[in-house]
Batch of 2 targets.
Target 1
Amino acid sequence: MEAKTTEYELEYYEKYFGDVKQVKKTVENCPNCGNPFFFTHSTDHKNLHVKETACCTNCSYGKRKIVHVMN
Ligand SMILES: [Zn+2]
């Protein structure tokens, strides 16, 4: 039982990082000043969501919140 659970977790994380990489390619810079965004991620394993917050540390562009749904 425990071995099965571990396998599942590994597959799950590969998916998760793949998604984040793809997203970062398109939204990694501030449209206002071009500075790279500072990202924070929190994963909701129960609902298969990744909550992503992007904010610029260089200007006052503000925060952008994105929720990715994984399935
Ligand atoms: Zn900025």
Target 2
Amino acid sequence: MKILGISGSPRKESTSRLVQEVLDATGEDTEFISLKGKNIAGCIACLGCVKENVCVVKDDMQELRQKIVDADAYVIGAANYFMTMNGLAHCFLERWYQFRHREGKSVTGKLAVAVGVGGAMGTPVADQIETFMAYNLIDTVGKVSGQGAACCFICGYGETCKVGAVQMLFGPECKITEEIIPKIEKQPKVLAAAQAAGRALGERLRSGNDRASTAQKVAAYLGERFKEAT
Ligand SMILES: Cc1cc2nc3c(=O)[nH]c(=O)nc-3n(C[C@H](O)[C@H](O)[C@H](O)COP(=O)(O)O)c2cc1C
């Protein structure tokens, strides 16, 4: 079984670390890719993907497409920017629109773990990744959230900036020291949750994931959410 791990953060920091923790616990063959430095635009709704389920926009998503198709499961991570997932991760996931048309079967019924990281919280981002996965009829078997270091810890003005994360988290008299900088390694509960999610993903794959029934289950869940919203 092949599991593709993607960190959608433009930095190779805490999101990458947490995605890797999940991957390592799966016990399966894994590949990790950071989207840092990649050129991936958002979906432009050109509908060029409708007939063949292949996006026609020429950028770094092209090389990632085959890896997505070949993988049996995904560990997708993104960073919390303004309480939503960071733009690069959003662009990347928008482009999964190419898999949805004309009963495209490239990803439906596969499995995922969603990873969200924020300077304060990653939970909303993990929830958003789960929604993206559901739209492609992918079952999210686990969600993990952790706290990373906001840029305010290294920008040079963190101790005095009144609107920055340092004062928000630790108050106006705060001094930045190594001890107070959030790191995934310092969060045993988060690491344990990541390992549990990775193990659960590996076990689901090894027990034989019937993609047709998984897709049906996610479609029913989506249907319920549509009903609630209308
Ligand atoms: C533009 C921007 C907006 C951010 N907004 C939030 C936010 O609303 N909530 C939050 O918890 N963290 C926020 N952060 C902090 C990041 O989520 C944090 O630095 C996290 O560690 C990023 O993941 P990474 O370490 O993998 O890059 C923001 C960071 C940036 C650069």
